Each structure stands twice: as C-alpha cells, then as structure tokens.
Amino acid sequence: MFCPNCGTKNDSDAVFCSNCGTRLTPVTSTTPPTEQRSTRVAQPTATTPSRTAQPQKKGQPHKPNNTKRTPILIGILIAVLVIGAGVGYYFYHQHQESDSSQVSSMSSSQSATTSTSESSTSGSEPALWSASKNSDLSSFMASWEQTMNQSYLGTYDGHSVEDDGITFPADIKNNQYQGKITIDGSDATLKWTPNADTDAEYQVVAAAAYSHVENGSDKMIAYLYVFHNQQPEVLVSQDVDSTVHNFTQTENQDLQRGFAKIANN
C-alpha cells in the first residue's frame, strides 16, 4: 500500500504511513456516525507518528543523503582532471624531447658526414705534427744553433725563409716551386701542411735557412723538415747561385735525431 501523501510504500495492513503518519485506510466500524466523530476527536495527537520519530521498518530501503556526497564527487573529479593533465603534459614533454633528440642526432650525423666527406676529399690522415711540436722544434733549434755556431731563420719562429728567390712557405703553398726544387736529383711534389695530416709523399711542416759569406761568396744553407711517406726526415740544400735547388737528406745526425724525436713524441 502506498501513502497518498508522500508515496511511501507501507504494509498492506498498515493504518498509518510509516514515513509521514498519514492515515492510510478509513476506519471501519459499526459504531454510529456520532460515535465515530467522537472517537476521532478523542484520539490523542501525541500518538500521531512524526516523520522524524517513526522508526525505519526492517527491509525498507534507506534514502541516501545526496547533499553530503556532492563535495566528495567534485573532489574526485578535480583530482582525476589534475592527474590527467599531469600525465598528458608528461607524455607531451617526452615527445618534445624525443623530437629534439632526433633533430640533434640528425644534425650530428650530417656534421659527421660533412666532416668525413671533407676529410676524404683532402686525403686526410692522422696528424703527425702540431703547434706544440712546432714550438718544441723552435726550442731544439735554438740549442742546436749554439752547438753549430750558426744562426738560422725558421718558420717555426713565425718567419719566412728565402733562398735565392725561393720563399718558404709561400712558394710551396702557392705551388711555385715546380721546376725549382728536386730531391736527390728528381722532381718531387711538396705539400706544405702544419699538421702533416695528408697523404702527400713529401709533407713539409717547417723550413729554416742560414745565410753567410764563405770564401768571399754569399752562401745559404736551407733545411726542409718533412714527413716522407709518413716518416720524419730533414732535407738540406747548399746550392750557390742556382735556379734549381737540389735537396738531399741531411748528414747531420744530431739534427735528424732531434727532429725525429720531436715528431715521434
């Protein structure tokens, strides 16, 4: 039986609504109408069930309090949104870093390819000479000159060396030595290189010259410090008034050993 006032379901034999206290069925009695009216009036109001005092019957469903659940649901929704935003940002950041790494990797790869291409074009080899070795050669020559009682002008000290119209290193750099220089009587291809990192047969890393007067004549001793087939050698020329300078390997073992020691250090 449902209450006509609040709609609450009650037992079929219930007289009053268990929720609001409304009478559910009319009073059935053989008592005369006047007595019925009297009974109604005499019924105490205190016994009328109140909405709050009426106990809940066993098995009747309890209406949830939606007002208390609303803040909790809102809090959960906010937490889900915050977590979702954090996860989304994390994956976006990872994606950006991945793209950046790929670009960096591609750039490095292109640079390496370019470097390899340039090296292949120039016939690059492991460097056999360096600025520090050039400085060591300068110190060695200063000591060696005192032993020889000679004074040399060397490219290792930042000077140009001139020998009867030939200027080092400019002439070698500009390929102007053709027809003017031979090695052991044969034409040779010289390449001036401060690092000796090419595959040229004769790589010149330094030159020195000593001008003096001997028996009334001007004379110049010129040295070329070279890597001949990747091995250190000192070539010397003592031509006088010659348009072609023939270089041979020096017989001065102190000079040869000094240069080789620096080169192989």
UniProtKB/TrEMBL annotation:
The keyword Iron-sulfur does not apply. Keywords: Membrane, Transmembrane, Transmembrane helix. Residues 25-68, 102-128 are annotated as: Disordered. The chain crosses the membrane at residues 72-92. Residues 2-24 form the Zinc-ribbon domain. The keyword RNA-binding does not apply. Residues 102-125 have a biased composition (Low complexity). Residues 127-263 form the DUF4767 domain. It comes from the Bacteria. This is Zinc-ribbon domain-containing protein.
